[in-house]
Design goal:
The protein is of the alpha+beta class. The strands form 2 sheets. Strands 1-2 form a two-stranded parallel ribbon. The chain has a two-stranded antiparallel ribbon with strand order 3-4. Strand 1, helix 3 and strand 2 form a beta-alpha-beta unit. The longest helix has 15 residues. The radius of gyration is 16 Å and the shape is globular. The N and C termini lie far apart (about 45 Å).
């Protein structure tokens, strides 16, 4: 079992807490996640930190789409599904606008 001390020993530990390493110098960001994504709350937290710092940031938390329950990286694991195509289009439109 991995405990808190094991996590702190990781070489990338200092980067695991976004608010500790964020310096405000980032381009506009788009976060896409799903309600069943294990990191959905981290995405919401990052959105809050970015918005507070004046960084343009959009987040889309997918609940389900076309009868599919969505989870982590759904648009990568199934990019040709309706929700996968919609998420990729939304991200692409955002970045093309910037």
């Amino acid at each position: 079992m991995v405990g808190p001390d094991d996590v702190k020993a990781l070489t990338n530990y200092k980067f695991l807490n976004f608010s500790d390493v964020f310096n405000g110098k980032v381009p506009p960001m788009f976060i896409t996640t799903a309600r069943l994504d294990p990191v959905v709350f981290q995405g919401l937290k990052i959105k809050k930190i970015l918005s507070k710092a004046g960084v343009e940031c959009k987040i889309h938390v997918w609940k389900n789409c076309d009868g599919q329950v969505l989870s982590h990286v759904f648009m990568v694991t199934d990019p040709y599904s309706l929700p996968g195509r919609q998420a990729i289009k939304e991200m692409t439109d955002f970045f093309l606008a910037h």
